Amino acid sequence: MKYPPLDPQMFADNRTRFAALLQSETIAIIHANEEIVSNADAYYPWVQSSDLFRLTGIDQSETIVVLYPTSPSPSHREMLFIKRADSIQTLRDGETLDKAKAT
Question: Which of 1, 8, 25, 101 could form a disulfide with 97 if both were Cys (CB 3.0 to 4.6 A apart)?
Answer without folding.
Answer: 101
